[in-house]
Amino acid sequence: MAVKLYKPTSAGRRIQSVTDYSVLHKKRKTPKSLIMSKARPAGRNNSGKITVRHQGGGFRRKVRVVDFARADKKNVVAKVATVEYDPTRTAFISLLHYVDGSKRYILTPQGLKVGDKVMYGEAAEILPGNRLALKNIPVGTLVHDIELAPGQGGRMARSAGAYAILQTIEGGYALLKLPSGEIRKVKEACLASVGVLSNADWMNVRIGKAGRTRLMGWRPTVRGKVMNPVDHPHGGGEGHNPIGMKYPKTPWGKHALGVKTRSKKKYSNKMIVKRRSK
């Protein structure tokens, strides 16, 4: 995967870059059973009040139904029919054609190509796209789409270029080093897919212009320091001034940076061996 640059035919185009989609399958006919519409709340809660600012608008997108579990396809071989773009996620997805006739989408790891065969089961080889229980995967293997509880379906390491490192297995638990640097215990019976997820260069793409941001569903963000004091703690003053405070604040007067938001009573605290590095 790579990032594609254009000739500077305009001011926005000069600093803009896009993901190179030439690696994707050209003939993309999405099965209707694997596509669905999903309402976009635009940052509003069930009362219609805005709880997350700067969201709204954007291009209409259809959600692809991705199989994060593959639990009912144990020891069933599937062939990769396409590698496709998914508008609702950063990693690419692959359409699998199983030998029993069914079709499913999965997340595409690096190295998985059209025509390759993948499988979930104890007998699966340690190859990109295959899915096994953590206890059946060699130590040091890079994995993605990891379950937090057996049979739950993948929950961790699902974005573009993400992976976790299987460090050891002891006492019925597997120790995983996550993309954040956190080391976490997961039951050894949990499933994970082998490999690093595709489109790792996604993080290097430069948006380039405001209109492209709007198409992504992000509305404009106004700095607090250019507001009036009635609208933001940073507001007020004549001309260009610093915020005049020891620390930045939210519009509601709370700490904006460096505040720990994780509950000390979180149920999964006992599963974390080492917190993520700063």
Describe this structure in words.
With about 280 residues, the protein is mainly β. The protein has two domains: about 5-205, Beta Barrel (OB fold (Dihydrolipoamide Acetyltransferase, E2P)); about 225-278, Ribosomal protein L2, domain 3 (Irregular), CATH 4.10.950.10. It has two helices and 17 strands. The strands form five sheets. Strands 9-16-10-13-14-15-17 form a seven-stranded antiparallel sheet, with no helix packed on it. It has a four-stranded antiparallel sheet with strand order 7-6-5-8, with no helix packed on it. A hairpin with a 5-residue loop joins strand 14 (about 175) and strand 15 (about 185). The longest helix has 6 residues, at about 210-215.
Structural key phrases:
globular; OB fold (Dihydrolipoamide Acetyltransferase, E2P); 278 residues; 2 domains; Ribosomal protein L2, domain 3; mainly beta; 4% helix
The share of residues in helices is: under 10%
Spans with pLDDT under 50 lasting ≥5 residues? Answer: none
CATH C-level of the largest domain: Mainly Beta
Shape: globular
Largest pleated sheet: 7 strands, antiparallel
**In the CATH scheme, what's the topology name of the largest domain?**
OB fold (Dihydrolipoamide Acetyltransferase, E2P)
The fraction of residues assigned to DSSP E strands is: 15-25%
The radius of gyration computed from the alpha-carbon positions, rounded to a whole number of angstroms, is: 22 Å
Structural class designation: mainly beta
CATH superfamily of the largest domain: Nucleic acid-binding proteins
Number of strands: 17
How many structural domains? 2
Side-by-side strand order of the widest sheet: 9-16-10-13-14-15-17
CATH architecture of the largest domain: Beta Barrel
Q: N- to C-terminal separation? A: 29 Å
What is the N-to-C succession of helices and strands?
A: EHEEEEEEEEEEEEEEEHE
Overall mean confidence score, pLDDT = 91
User: How many DSSP helices?
Assistant: 2
